[in-house]
Amino acid sequence: INNMTRTHRIAVIPGDGIGIETVAATLRVLEKLSALENFSLDLTHFDYGSARYKSTGSYTPETFPDELRPYDSILFGAVGDPDVPDHISLWKLLLPMRQIFQQYVNCRPVCLLPGVKACVNTAATPSDLDWVIVRENSEGEYSGQGGRSHIGTVGETATEVGIFTRFGCERLIRWAFELASGRPRKLLTLVTKSNAQRSGLVLWDECANRVAKDYPDVKWDKMLVDAMTVRMVRNPASLDVIVCTNLHGDILSDLAAALAGSIGIAPSANLVPDHSAPALFEPVHGSAFDIMGKGIANPIGTIWSAAMMLDYLGEKAAAARLERAFKKALADGATTADLGGELDTEGAAQAVIDRL
Ligand code: ATP
Ligand code: MG
Predict the structure, then answer these.
(1) Are 30 and 40 in contact (CB under 8 A)?
(2) Can you list the residues of the chain whose pLDDT is less than 70?
(3) Residue minimizing CA distance to atom 17 of ligand 1
(4) With a 6 A CB cut-off, is 19 part of the ligand 1 pocket?
(5) Where would one find the signal peptide in this protein (predicted)?
(6) DSSP states along 115-129
(7) Structure pTM?
């Protein structure tokens, strides 16, 4: 039996705030699931985050990419602290990691679920909103290139340079077309702003034109990001796979999570399609200091992210089993207060365990 047990090495970074609580709850679910599905997770905890920064002056050790590289995946909670500027928490860990490990696909499924009240105006059949947002995650507007001059003077100037490479755009768009061609409706919408941004986004559009030729079965269109916000709200059923640049994807995926009902359940995967470095799985929500320590955070966003991690690791049966269990828990109303339920974080995780 032991020889047949598959082992996956997981780096666990709970981070700050409710990330610590939702990751702990998720690990309890994974422990039970691994026993049922005959795989094992070799977990190593890392203390990266704002508490470490406040006590030692550094968010992570300098060598953090070397420390994390041996792992198959990273399960991440959230970082962010009212006492630490947001650009520090992002640039000390998450954004460099996406670039160093080339986690170039950020994948966020968004769908209507029984038991979750959606904000969107629909007849409430699941097909009314069933999207995967595919966001470029390694370059674009968050490339970190730019600078400031004449600081403190009236002539102060800052540049924020978006980097778009044909290599980077094509690989991401190809991944999205591949995904779309495997989905029932085979639709893809490319989000752009090439009317106003005339270099990077024009290249982005051209890459889509080129890649689309390889996927004649996928019906696709292009949409300016401003018009896209309207379409997401007014005509959600017309969308399936949504491909965005780094900045647009950041914004649209929060809108999508809100439309579908709750930021507390939204999952996110930062994928390395060739598995050459660890991928990272995290809930869409942040550290939410307003509810930290109360034990009321919804763990489903982290649990769903863990299901995506299992799928990426090849544990397809376990991933599907976990997804069925948390969807059943939501449908049964076995949820936390943000969804109108009465359970605390541990209770909501237990409700998932009971349904595995
Ligand atoms: P960030 O700065 O990363 O956006 P944040 O601390 O602002 O993080 P968000 O994740 O943006 O927090 O969440 C906004 C609010 O939504 C939180 O303050 C909290 O009240 C609520 N919220 C977020 N996640 C959850 C959750 N898992 N369960 C319950 N409520 C949540
Ligand atoms: Mg926020």
Answers:
(1) no
(2) 1-4, 121-127
(3) 288
(4) no
(5) none
(6) TS---S-S---GGGS
(7) 0.93
Single out the residue of 47, 7, 13 nearest to residue 27, CA to CA.
Answer: 13
- Ligand nearest the Cα of residue 78 is 1
Residue nearest to atom 18 of ligand 1 (CA): 288
Is residue 54 within 8 Å of 84, Cβ to Cβ?
yes
Sign of CA dihedral 230, 244, 275, 145: negative
pLDDT tens digits, one per residue of 128-175 = 899 999 999 999 999 889 999 999 999 999 999 999 999 999 999 999
Task: Write out pLDDT tens, residues 77-133.
Answer: 999 999 888 787 788 888 889 999 999 999 999 999 888 888 776 555 656 899 999
Place of tokens 């507007």: 141
Pocket test for ligand 1, best of 119, 285, 338 (most atoms within 8 A of CB): 285
Q: Could you tell which of 20, 93, 263 is best to mutate to test the pocket of ligand 1, judged by most ligand atoms within 8 Å of the CB?
A: 263
- Going from the Cα of 256 to the center of ligand 2, the distance in angstroms, rounded, reads 14
Query: Is the distance from the beta carbon of residue 80 to the nearest atom of ligand 1 less than 6 Å?
Result: yes
